[in-house]
Each structure stands twice: as structure tokens, then as C-alpha cells.
Write a structure and sequence with these properties.
The structure is a single chain. With 263 residues, the chain is α/β, with parallel strands linked by helices. The protein has nine helices and seven strands; from the N terminus they run βαβαβαβαβααβαααβ. Helix 3 packs parallel to helix 4. 48% of the residues are buried. The structure holds nicotinamide-adenine-dinucleotide.
Length: 263
């Protein structure tokens, strides 16, 4: 039997990149999925391919969070795992960060991450334990190794938002342990996704680098010697979603080829 057979999982930011790779992996492991994203057509295409459920939702909007969370309860009567993964970035020198950019990045990456986890945890706290487990629910968030070292000199709001996600992970772990809900996060490194294409473009424009040069600089020091693939994150998310991690909570797990050892 696959390790996630029967577990119900909601993934935000599921249309592409890390979220999509996790959707494929968790579906292959037997989970039942609700795939949510701002990109409605993108998430519907993936859900059709995987035989899963799609919801178009902007996680910064309270009503859309509620609608998205109703979906697994309407279909299956419960939500076992939330993968709180939607995120955005902007590459900008610190001296040029505007209030609008700060607000946009923090709004998606930190404020929405909190209200999605809160809305999920309120429901999980009222449900019966996950079949075969002593837990009522599991929360997994996507932070980043940018949380620890300020990312790089061009990612101040993003890095602050991800440090906030690590903090949320731990606050939620403490506050929700009495409800038998765990909270952990993954901290990816430099992953080959559309987000990194954007970083390469914006960083290159700012510093006069040829396309691909910023990416090359970022991946050069990775101890394991190759760029990170979304599937590298998906394996760890599958572990955090499954029964083998039921005794883990409050942890930030680096999945970065060794870029940051410890935190
Ligand atoms: P991506 O840009 O490829 O995918 C992000 C997805 O989130 C997109 O499908 C987008 O439509 C969705 N999204 C954005 N705003 C949303 C909103 N308001 N509501 C709903 N969905 C929304 O990025 P990715 O690389 O797959 O990143 C996924 C997560 O991993 C993010 O939280 C990101 O910060 C984090 N991360 C990425 C890297 C990396 O190197 N790519 C490294 C560390 C952490």
C-alpha cells in the first residue's frame, strides 16, 4: 500500500513548480488532493491529468481561503494535510524597495500563509484523528533557506517573509500540539522553477548579467553539485505528509543540496 493512501491533502500554489511536483508525488503515493492556485486554468489542467480536484483561489482573500478549505470537507469530510506553499518574490535593491512591493510579497508569503494555516487548523481541531494516526492534522509550509542568511542582497522582503514562515511554523507547532496538529516547514535552496527564471531575469537586469548568469552563480557553491529539482522537495514533503513524520513538529527542514548546514 502506498504510504499516503486515503490521506486528504490541500496544496496551495499547486499549478506549477514545487507545488505541482508535490501534487504529482503525493498523488502517486495514493493521496486524495485538492489543488489550489491563483492560476485557474493551470491548476485545472494538472488536476485533470492527475484525476484530482482543482480550486481557483487567491490565498490573500479570506473568502477564497474559506471556499478552498470547504472543498475537501465537502468531498471527503476531512483534511489531513495542508501544504501551505503559494509564494511570490521580487528582486530589488534594499534602497529601492517600495511600500507596495513590501506589502505584496509579505501579503502572499506571510500574511496569507498565516490565515490559511489558521483556517485549516480551526477545522482540523474539530475533526477525528487521521485514520491510523494519533494526529488530527498536519501542516507543512514552504519557507526557504533565504530565511536564515537574508537570502541574498537583493531579496530583503522575500527573506523577511520566509523568516516569518519559519517563526509561524514553530508558533503553530506549540499552539496546536494540544490539538494533535503538527506544523513543519521545508526550506528549499535554488530550485529550477519559474520563480528562479524570474530571479535570474530581474537580478541580471539589475547587475548587467547575461541570462542564466545569476542562476549559475547561485548553483555553483551547492555541495551536492547540481541544481535542485522540484522533485527533490516533493520527496521531503511526502515524508512530512506521511505517517513516518508523525512525531516531528516545529521543524524547519533544509532541502538544498547542502547550501545551508543547520540553521
Ligand atoms: P512558482 O512561481 O513556480 O509557483 C508559485 C505558484 O504559486 C504559482 O503557480 C502561482 O500562481 C501561485 N501563487 C502565487 N500567488 C498566489 C496567490 N495569491 N494565491 C494562490 N496561488 C498563488 O514558484 P516555486 O518555485 O514553485 O515556489 C513555491 C514555493 O517555494 C514558494 O513559496 C517559494 O517562495 C518557495 N521557494 C522557492 C524556491 C526556488 O528556488 N524556486 C526556493 C525556496 C523557496
Amino acid at each position: 500500500m502506498a504510504r499516503l493512501t486515503g490521506r486528504t491533502v490541500l496544496i496551495t500554489g499547486a499549478a506549477r513548480g514545487i507545488g505541482a511536483a508535490c501534487a504529482r508525488r503525493l498523488a502517486a503515493d495514493g493521496a486524495r488532493l485538492v489543488l489550489a492556485d491563483l492560476d485557474g486554468p493551470g491548476v485545472e489542467k494538472l488536476a485533470d491529468e492527475l484525476g484530482q480536484v482543482a480550486v481557483r483561489a487567491d490565498v490573500t482573500r479570506t473568502q477564497e481561503i474559506e471556499r478552498m478549505l470547504e472543498e475537501p470537507y465537502r468531498r471527503w469530510g476531512r483534511l489531513d494535510v495542508l501544504f501551505n506553499n503559494a509564494g511570490v518574490i521580487r528582486v530589488q535593491p534594499l534602497l529601492e524597495v517600495t511600500e507596495a512591493e513590501w506589502d505584496r510579497v509579505l501579503n502572499v508569503n506571510l500574511r496569507a500563509a498565516f490565515f490559511v494555516l489558521q483556517a485549516a487548523a480551526r477545522r482540523m481541531a474539530r475533526q477525528e484523528p487521521i485514520p491510523g494516526s494519533e494526529l488530527r492534522g498536519k501542516l507543512i509550509h514552504t519557507a526557504s533557506i533565504a530565511a536564515y542568511r537574508g537570502g541574498n542582497h537583493l531579496m530583503t522582503p522575500y527573506s523577511a517573509s520566509k523568516a516569518g514562515v519559519v517563526s509561524l511554523t514553530r508558533s503553530a507547532a506549540q499552539a496546536l500540539a494540544p490539538h494533535r496538529i503538527t506544523s513543519n516547514c521545508v526550506c528549499p535552496g535554488a530550485v529550477e522553477t519559474a520563480m528562479w527564471e524570474q530571479i535570474d531575469r530581474e537580478w541580471g537586469t539589475l547587475e548587467g548579467l547575461a541570462p542564466g548568469e545569476a542562476w549559475k552563480r547561485r548553483i555553483q557553491p551547492i555541495p551536492l553539485g547540481r541544481p535542485e529539482r522540484p522533485e527533490d522537495v516533493a520527496g521531503v514533503v511526502a515524508f512530512l505528509a506521511g505517517p513516518d513524520s508523525d512525531y516531528m513538529t516545529g521543524q524547519a527542514v533544509n532541502v538544498d543540496g547542502g547550501l545551508v548546514m543547520g540553521n
